[in-house]
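Crash report, auto-generated. Payload:
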Amino acid sequence: MKPFRMLGRSIRDAFKSVIRNFSLSLASISCITITLIIVAVAVIASFNVQNFTKEIEKDMTIVVFLENDATEADVEEVKHKIDNISNVEKYTFQSKVEIKKQMQSESEVFNKVLEEWDENESPLKDTFQVKVKDIEKISATAEKIQAFNKVSVVRYGEGMVDKMVTAFSSIEKVTYGIVIALIIVTVFLIVNTIKLTISARKREISIMRLVGASNFTIKTPFIVEGMILGVFGSIVPIIISTYGYLAFYNHFDGHLFSELIQLIKPEPFIYTTSLIVLVIGIIVGMIGSASAVKKYLKV
Amino acid sequence: MDLVRIKNVEKKYKNGVTALYDLNLAIEKGAFVFVIGGSGSGKSTLIKMLYREEKPTKGQIIVGGLDVAKLKNRKVYKLRRKLGIVFQDYRLLPKQTVYENVAFALEVIGAKKDEIRVKVLKALEDVGLKHKLHEYPDHLSGGEQQRVAIARAIVNDPKLLLCDEPTGNLDPEMSMEIMKVLEEINNKRGTTIIMVTHDKDIVNKMKKQVITLKEGRLVNFKKKGTYNNEAI
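Recovered output after restart:
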């Protein structure tokens, strides 16, 4: 088959070129390696931040206390209204009677104290626990519930948790920014490397054009060369990020600062990260070489 | 049948120099044509336009049915596959053997290995270099290097062979050797040959068609021409 034959030639030529221009190739491989190490760290950090945020968000609920004198009809009405809020994912309801029973069963002391109170004196209130779909709209949802009849107090994780989520999301944005900037720098480096290998092969390219090689045929070996540089450049970062993350995870017992911030389990995660690093390496190599070779394909 | 047809072609370079004015030409299949003229006559521009290294500013150039002036950059290879091109400076790959240099032209257009072998050997036989397959270009004389270049140009059985001063770097004896090879290719393979030269002896000895250019204009086109000093 002709396409396969041509591809075989391209790969052979690309390997030849990497070996022939060894010092130059080594230079770009090192550049890719350094970039990809930082990219790998950023990817790991960003995934973990996403994970923390998700875990924390999962635990965030709105707690709604009704007024003491709320009747069963009032409770039904509030239930109905909460159902109608679009941001509500689900809710649980505990009546004061249920709470009383639960508390009584939990401890002897509670049991005695609660026994003495009759229905009207009881400080216990009918309680809803509401989970929302979109955590960013939690305060708006809380305000809506606050406005309902017979609702006394509405609580959600204001303050600390809120701030943590915003802090994490800005950390995430910064890491993305750094990753993108680094990738651009690396692409430039590869463009220059491939340009040098091309200028060494200018004669060959001009002859190829003269004897009727299509642009595709001329381009492919260089693009393959870029991909090879990308693959070689991603080996060290993959090893470092894999073993580095394993060591990090084991050292901190799987969580950072407090139990609240859980790290992602290394098992499938490091494979995903390695794959991402490899793919970024290959794509960066490809883009770099494709743009370097473009200039030489004008007649 | 005309293989090359040039109609009202004008070439003006970006620096304002006009190399050719309103050129009209037709070259028939199987012809052997010399293009002569002094420096600045436009002969190099003419041949460069035939293989689409340069584009005409005005007019139409048809080579083997392809409208060269309208050919897009990425389609140029279609034209080049119909042509063989030989230069004064041979343009061989120094790190590859004679065989590899000739085979290169077929490899890059995706020919099969067996086909490459047969065609390369045939082309090298035609130029009389079958015994130097595994030599490197550096070990060959200028005339031999040029014959390798010719083998590379004809290996793909082109309809048209363009030669830009192929004997410019060679002594008279070697030049005649090259001319014999070209004449044989013209006779045996029926390849149309257009050759730019300023070598008076060659033109006079060969007695082929001669296109004379002067200052960008066609002076004459003779069937069995000689190198006329006055015209240039």
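Post-recovery validation: DSSP finds seven helices and ten strands in chain B.
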